[in-house]
Amino acid sequence: MMDSPLKRTLLETVIASTPTKKAKQDVGPVAQPFFWSNYNIEQILGEGSEGKVYGVVEKATSKRYAIKRFAPRIQLLSDPLVEISILSELSEKCPSLVRFYGSIFVTDPFVAGSAPTLGYKMEWVDGDTMQEQISAGKRPSKAEFQSVLRQLAEQLACVHEQGIVHRDIKPSNIVLARDGTAKLIDFGIGCTVPSIERSAIPQCDDAVIGTVKYFAPELFKTTFRALKGRRINLPTPTSDIWALGASLYAWLTGQLVNVSSFEKRNLERITDIQSDSSVPLIIRQMIDIDPASRPKAIELIT
Ligand SMILES: Nc1ncnc2c1ncn2[C@@H]1O[C@H](COP(=O)(O)OP(=O)(O)O)[C@@H](O)[C@H]1O
Ligand SMILES: [Mg+2]
Predict the structure, then answer these.
(1) Spatial contact of 283 and 248, defined as CB atoms under 8 Å apart
(2) Ligand 1 centroid vs 169 CA: distance in angstroms?
């Protein structure tokens, strides 16, 4: 996979654009045998099948960064080059998104002599994920809720403006910093809407990937229709809006919207939520069964 012409081209592009010493992005995608010696590792921020995220302090500058190191390619479900490519592009175009500071090949800092794998350096959003807050039973105040909704909507509006669908919005992919900043992370399975062509980023297709608990109901239809060879519903900006609404609902109430299939009882549950006036109207609109009725990200901030 790594040797396909597309990926080689991307890698070459990334390498060709490796900043010079003067540039801000001080880490290029070349193997850096002494990479970790420049940093103190403060925390392991995340650990999953795809890799690990380290919270580090750069010794020379005392600046804090997050370093994501992917697992060896053979273990990966997603393509790290897609994630790097999307984040590097979006970080430039969307100033409110997590800052990207360059891709790297790097060893496992805790395994001597381990083979370097791909990774990248980004802004460390110092706080908890929304999922950690949900699991700890921590609910937002009204002001906090509104501020987080606005920040995430602004980021998502910019992502969608670039023709990119995140496809995996969920509470563990939202980091809430102690200073009130909220950031959408993890573009590992992002895709572009069909009208947009970008060499390094796949177009959204009928592959049913993402996190089932936050799937918009129309995506369940996709599975069944695709199995029968019928017309399918692709992930779109509107399915991202559903996922954001369902994440915010979980944060506010500690409950899942739970449409883990297109079954009637689940649809009834959505109807119940929609008639519950204690749930903010904006959330109820975001989890409208009809994708066309959901607000666009840009409308959530205007
Ligand atoms: N920039 C960041 N700042 C703070 N924590 C982060 C950052 N990026 C990732 N994390 C933490 O690491 C976890 C895994 O990162 P993520 O990019 O979602 O990887 P995965 O592909 O394994 O889901 C997140 O859920 C979050 O806890
Ligand atoms: Mg994630």
Answers:
(1) yes
(2) 12
pTM of the model: 0.87
| CATH 1.10.510.10 domain span(s) along the chain | 127-300
> E strands along the chain, which residues?
39-48, 51-58, 64-70, 100-106, 117-123, 127-129, 164-165, 174-177, 182-184, 191-192
Instruction: Tell me the CA–centroid distance for residue 47 and ligand 1, in Å.
Output: 8
Return the best residue to mutate from 43, 52, 54, 68 for the ligand 1 pocket (most ligand atoms within 8 A of CB): 68
Q: Which residues line ligand 1 (CB under 6 A)?
A: 45-46, 48, 50-51, 53, 66, 68, 98, 122-125, 129, 172-173, 175, 185-186, 188
Return the residue whose CA atom lies nearest to atom 4 of ligand 1: 125
Start-end of CATH 3.30.200.20 domains in the chain: 32-123
**Predicted confidence (pLDDT) per residue in 110-162, tens digit:** 998 899 999 999 999 999 999 999 999 999 999 999 999 999 999 999 999 99
pLDDT tens-place string over residues 100-122: 999 999 999 999 889 999 999 99
